[in-house]
Amino acid sequence: MGGTDSSFIAKYGNPTSRTTSNGSPFLMFNAHDNNIGQFGVVLAPGTHTVYGLVISPPGAQSWDAITANTICINYVPEDSKLDPPKNVTDSSGNTVGLYQGGHSAELANSLNPDPPGDQFLVIDVSTKNMTTQVQQVNPLDFTLIDSTGQHMTWTILSSLPNTHTYDLTALQPGATNRGVLTYEVSTGKHSYQLTFAIDQFSGNQTQWNIHS
């Protein structure tokens, strides 16, 4: 991660499919590895920078946590520091997965260049799980759109003081996830619409009007 999609195309060939979710291009590749089934990259909106990977075992096979970590760690920046793993549980308290976050200054710096004429819009958001099921929440569940319909570029500001980035989280029933969303926008005062859809394919969205 932190590189560009051209690096993946050079190594794995043209993508086998291209889709878009919440403004972020999602490219699937043939990994040419019998140990990997699904292999895809997620690009930061409006860029060719890879900031997310989707890797899964082939067919109906499964990986244990050690195998998954060993395979996936090969694709993250060398300076990555992983947080302690957390169990993902269902509404009955059964462990159904493992979530391990992490941070990389190299990746963060590749996502937040500060071009002339731009500024950053920082939005403090909280989401609460009002269901009886565990919900995966993600910063890409949110989309910021300007008055012309253009999707703003979501980014990570590693140097922003006294803030916590809104992270991908397995949100337990009744739990709240709070953090900041940062978007690169044009300077000056503008109007935007922030939308939230935990399921991008359901068509159900919550919308807010934002003024900078």
SSE arrangement:
Layout: H1 5-12, E1 17-21, E2 24-28, E3 39-43, E4 50-55, H2 65-72, E5 81-82, E6 86-89, E7 95-99, E8 102-103, H3 105-111, E9 118-128, E10 135-137, E11 142-146, E12 153-155, E13 169-171, E14 176-186, E15 191-196, E16 206-211
Antiparallel strand pairs: 1-2, 2-3, 3-4, 5-8, 6-7, 9-14, 10-13, 11-15, 12-14, 15-16
Describe this structure in words.
It is built from 3 helices and 16 strands. It folds into 2 domains: 5-109, no CATH class; 113-211, Sandwich (Immunoglobulin-like), CATH 2.60.40.4170. The chain has 212 residues and is mostly beta strands. A hairpin with a 5-residue loop joins strand 6 (86-89) and strand 7. It has helices at residues 5-12, 65-72, 105-111; strands at residues 17-21, 24-28, 39-43, 50-55, 81-82, 86-89, 95-99, 102-103, 118-128, 135-137, 142-146, 153-155, 169-171, 176-186, 191-196, 206-211.
Unreliable parts = none
Number of H/I helices: 3
**Largest beta-sheet characterization:** 4 strands, antiparallel
Which structural class should the secondary elements be placed in?
A: mainly beta
- The amount of helix comes to 10-25%
Look at the structure and give the mean pLDDT: 80
Using DSSP, what is the number of strands? 16
Determine Rg (CA atoms, Å): 18 Å
What's the domain count? 2
Strand and helix order: HEEEEHEEEEHEEEEEEEE
- End-to-end distance: 31 Å
